[in-house]
Amino acid sequence: MGVASVRELKPGSGRWQIRVYMGRDPLTRKPLYETKTVSASGKREAQRIGNRWEDELRQGDLTGDGGTFAQLCEEALRHAERRMSPNTLSETRRIVRTYLAKPLGAMDVASIRTRTLDVLYAELAARGGRCQHRPCPRPPCPGHPGERCNRVGCTPPCPGHPGARCERKSCERRCPVHDGACASWVPCKDTPCEHGASLSAATVHRIHSVVRSLLEQAVAWGWISKNPAVRANPGQIIEDEIDPPDEPDVIRLLAEAERHDPRLADYLAVAIDSGARRGAVHALRWSYLDLEERGTARFPRVIVKAKGDGRGTRQPSKTLVERPASKNKRTSRRPIALSPYTVARLQAHHLRMKERALAAGAQLPDDAYVFSDDPLGAVPWHPDSTSRKFRVLRGGVGLDETRLHDLRHLMATLLLSNKVDPKVVAQRGGWSKVATMLDTYAHALPETDREAAEILGRVLGGT
Question: What is the model's pLDDT at position 158?
Answer without folding.
Answer: 45
